[in-house]
């Protein structure tokens, strides 16, 4: 029997904060219909009208930043400082697309032997967004800001544990002046996804989530012939060369792995360290990981909050134990208390171990030795995932050369791998397909329509 309510639970104490009843079929049908009705008028608005809504969304986000950050922290456990930064990033992204969407989607002239020929970019309809809990505001804005600025409308199916965030997002768009149906949050369970995708009203789906979820939704999208974008798991490699600025590299590496209690698809998970750099790396990483402070995510002195759910802790603990049984060594951390998983450093990790082969979605770094650059690239590419990666070296040209060999959607050199509204974001292999953000992101859900005209004779 499926659940009839979703529960909002504070991960640090397991206190139930709220319960949300699921929408019945009648309410879901109404939501889909309203999204369709809204699309018919929203697509006709000019860019300045849409931009005004997105800019007002940014105003509201900043006005209510503290309240919204607290909501995020309560529902999924992110430390309060990170939650506030997430809200601000959403505001900046709303403004970015408000300012740039019209330029991104301007008609593109082509020379093809006609009197006039060009491509015009037009909205396609209602887009379903299926989003995860780990960045409950940011993941939504990554797709929603460009999708809405392109003239589409959206239905959001958010993760069950962040229903409060989902409803808050809908309220923000309505207050900002978006007509009813332009942005709608659906409190629904997985079986309702097929009902939505089977509707002729819905033209596309974008999903951020696990490999398993992506496979399921992509199959449905294919069955119903709907455009899809999949941003799935990652097991990002960080390659560290002996000439790297060790203190800076380790500081960013630690941030990348432990941000959001390690629950980030683009967090560095496999630390591939060249042999000559290993002693310095281990010394510096142990110094820095020991400074992390875990506890109540509302305490502003805390660096690492709890993981979002007990089952996620159990999965990470299993990956750790199985890797240890296969010969890895736990150098630091790994203790579990409730949803708190003490930031861990796992060394002697090899191919075939869960810490190498699987996505470890929590605060655990896996250190993998490499004898030279060629082996480092082989190890980095020896993953079924291909989302992001980084290279650390003082020789930027060498870093770029290595980056070009890495099988990922993005590589950052001497910098934190992160999503940025100015840069396209997405992966290859089992990390998914399609792109979010930048101009590439807004082009995913538009009709690139060719128009060719010959002067009459």
- Report strand order across the widest sheet: 12-15-16-11-10-18-19
State the helical fraction. Answer: 40-55%
Q: Using the CA coordinates, give the radius of gyration.
A: 23 Å
Number of DSSP helices?
Answer: 15
Main sheet characteristics? 7 strands, mixed
The CATH H-level homologous superfamily of the largest domain: Aldehyde Dehydrogenase, Chain A, domain 1
Low-pLDDT runs: none
CATH architecture field of the largest domain: 3-Layer(aba) Sandwich
How many E strands? 22
Query: What's the level 1 CATH class of the largest domain?
Result: Alpha Beta
Q: State the end-to-end CA separation.
A: 69 Å
CATH topology of the largest domain: Aldehyde Dehydrogenase, Chain A, domain 1
Shape designation: globular
Descriptive report:
- It is a single chain.
- This protein is of the alpha/beta class and 457 residues long.
- It folds into two domains: 5-232 and 432-453, Aldehyde Dehydrogenase, Chain A, domain 1; 236-420, Aldehyde Dehydrogenase, Chain A, domain 2 (3-Layer(aba) Sandwich), CATH 3.40.309.
- It contains 15 helices and 22 strands.
- A seven-stranded mixed beta sheet has the order 12-15-16-11-10-18-19, with helices on both faces. Strands 7-6-5-8-9-21 form a six-stranded mixed beta sheet, with helices on both faces. It has a three-stranded antiparallel beta sheet with strand order 3-4-22, with no helix packed on it.
- Helix 2 runs antiparallel to helix 4 (80-104) and helix 9 crosses helix 10 (278-289).
- It is globular, with a radius of gyration of 23 Å.
């Amino acid at each position: 029997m499926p659940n009839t309510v979703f529960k909002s639970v504070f991960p640090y104490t397991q206190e139930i904060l709220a319960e949300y009843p699921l929408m019945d079929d009648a309410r879901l049908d109404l939501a889909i219909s309203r999204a369709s009705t809204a699309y018919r008028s929203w697509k006709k608005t000019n860019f300045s009208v849409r931009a005004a809504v997105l800019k007002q969304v940014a105003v509201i986000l900043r006005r209510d930043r503290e309240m919204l950050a607290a909501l995020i922290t309560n529902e999924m456990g992110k430390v309060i400082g990170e939650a506030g930064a997430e809200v601000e990033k959403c505001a900046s992204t709303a403004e970015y697309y408000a300012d740039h969407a019209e330029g991104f989607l301007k008609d593109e002239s082509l020379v093809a032997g006609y009197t006039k020929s060009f491509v015009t970019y037009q909205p396609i309809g209602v887009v379903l967004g299926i989003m995860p809990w780990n960045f409950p505001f940011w993941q939504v804005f990554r797709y929603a800001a460009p999708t809405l600025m392109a003239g589409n409308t959206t239905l959001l199916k958010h993760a069950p544990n962040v229903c409060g965030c989902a409803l808050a997002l809908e309220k923000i768009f309505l207050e900002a002046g978006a007509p009813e149906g332009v942005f709608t949050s659906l409190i629904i369970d997985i079986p309702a996804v097929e009902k939505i995708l089977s509707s002729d009203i819905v033209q596309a789906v974008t999903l951020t989530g696990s490999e398993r979820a992506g496979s399921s939704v992509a199959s449905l999208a294919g069955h119903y012939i709907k455009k899809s974008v999949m941003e799935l798991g990652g097991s990002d490699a960080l390659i560290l060369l002996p000439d790297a600025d060790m203190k800076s590299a380790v500081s960013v590496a630690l941030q990348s792995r432990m941000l959001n209690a390690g629950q980030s698809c683009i967090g560095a998970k496999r630390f591939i360290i060249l042999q000559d750099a290993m002693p310095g790396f281990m010394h510096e990483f142990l110094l820095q990981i020991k400074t992390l402070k875990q506890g109540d995510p509302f305490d502003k002195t805390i660096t690492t909050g709890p993981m979002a759910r007990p089952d996620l802790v159990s999965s990470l603990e299993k990956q750790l134990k199985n890797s240890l049984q296969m010969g890895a060594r736990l150098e630091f951390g790994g203790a579990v208390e409730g949803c708190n998983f003490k930031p861990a450093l796992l060394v002697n990790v090899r191919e075939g171990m869960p810490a190498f082969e699987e996505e470890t979605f929590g605060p655990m770094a896996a250190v993998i030795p490499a004898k030279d650059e060629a082996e480092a690239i082989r190890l980095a590419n020896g993953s079924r995932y291909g989302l992001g990666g980084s290279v650390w070296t003082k020789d930027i040209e060498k870093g770029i050369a290595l980056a070009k060999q890495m099988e990922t959607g993005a590589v950052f050199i001497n910098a934190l791998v992160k999503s940025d509204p100015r840069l396209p974001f997405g992966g290859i292999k089992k990390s998914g397909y399609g792109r979010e953000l930048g101009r590439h992101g807004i082009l995913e859900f538009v009709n690139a329509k060719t128009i060719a005209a010959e002067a009459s004779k």
